[in-house]
Design goal:
heterodimer; A: mainly alpha; 2 domains; about 0% strand; B: alpha+beta; Arc Repressor Mutant, subunit A; three-stranded antiparallel β-sheet; 5 helices; 3 strands
């Protein structure tokens, strides 16, 4: 566990403490992590011991019952340990065997997904086409700027010999166009391209998951 | 360590550490670790208790752009430490007399 995770967990589970007490706990542990060195965060957390024990002890010291049900914590931590110790190699299959309920809910999810496809398919198509339109627009605008820039430069160079002032101005405008592309358009283009790719990726991985689950069931 | 450390012993060791020089949480643990295997999380309640019973007080000092909480022994804490030291000496002599089979001539008389 890293320092940030440790501190967040403490503040999350110790919210019942008086403000001053909570501040004292958090600053104490934060200081310990920092003094032990940023590079040893995992090791420091390990040395500090089980965080749930620490939390419970602090609550008890402050006359607050640890959330009413201490057994719950013990049980859940035991279960987690068992899971990580023994079930890890064949995690998924055993999960399906041991918890028919979660298998049912997965099947139900697929069923819902299939039944509601008249709703989400159009939405999906709209999202994809919007993303595509956005991409095309940005590309088109950038392209237009590039064409304008290049042609201005070409025209500028030509008129430079016949009418130097106009030629220089046109040349300058051309460079401004290219500069705008370089400074503004290309980052925007990159950002749009990336986000479109991310959206499409997440949609496809979502579909992929559903198909995979169907196979597993 | 084969011997469990009592709360009183832990209190007194913390007091002694801080009494030698005002210091901060991590350093206190490191010092006490030379003798017994304790973690910072064991010492937090000890420090807090000593603070609440006015044996220790704290002040913040800046260190590399952040705060470090330094502990300082109050006059009440100094008295308590003195008392602890006396008790420990007594205790040590008695335990030694049994554990090391030391014959205490003075006590026999």
């Amino acid at each position: 566990m890293k320092r940030i995770e440790f501190i967040t967990e403490l503040s999350r589970k110790l919210y019942k403490l008086p403000k001053e007490e909570l501040e004292s706990v958090l600053s104490y542990y934060d200081e310990i992590f920092l003094d032990a060195g940023i590079e040893n965060e995992e090791e420091t957390a390990e040395k500090l011991g089980n965080i749930d024990d620490i939390i419970r002890q602090i609550l008890v010291e402050n006359n607050i019952e640890p959330d009413g049900k201490p057994e719950y914590y013990v049980d859940s931590s035991k279960q987690n340990q068992q899971k990580s110790n023994t079930y890890q190699p064949k995690n998924e299959s055993s999960d399906f065997n041991n918890k028919p309920k979660s298998g049912m809910s997965a099947a139900a999810k697929i069923l819902i997904a299939v039944l509601t496809f008249p709703i989400w398919l159009p939405v999906l198509i709209v999202i994809v086409s919007l993303a595509f339109a956005l991409l095309v627009t940005v590309i088109a605008v950038a392209f237009a700027f590039a064409v304008a820039g290049v042609s201005c430069i070409v025209v500028g160079i030509i008129t430079l010999f016949t009418a130097p002032p106009i030629g220089l101005t046109t040349l300058g405008i051309g460079f401004v166009f290219l500069g705008i592309i370089g400074l503004i358009a290309s980052p925007i283009l990159k950002a749009v391209f990336n986000s479109v790719r991310n959206v499409l990726n997440s949609i496809f991985s979502f579909l992929h998951n559903i198909i995979d689950r169907r196979r597993a069931v | 360590m084969g011997f469990p450390i009592s709360a009183g012993l832990l209190d007194s060791m913390v007091l002694a550490t801080v009494n030698a020089e005002d210091t901060y949480g991590y350093e206190i643990t490191q010092n006490i670790r030379r003798a017994v295997d304790v973690s910072e999380s064991t010492l937090y309640p000890v420090l807090r208790r000593l603070q609440k019973s006015d044996l220790l007080e704290t002040y913040d000092r800046e260190f590399m752009g952040r705060n470090r909480r330094y502990y300082h022994v109050t006059s009440k804490g100094e008295l308590a430490l003195e008392q602890y030291r006396k008790e420990w000496c007594d205790h040590k002599v008695k335990v030694d007399s049994i554990l090391m089979n030391e014959v205490e001539n003075n006590e026999k008389n």
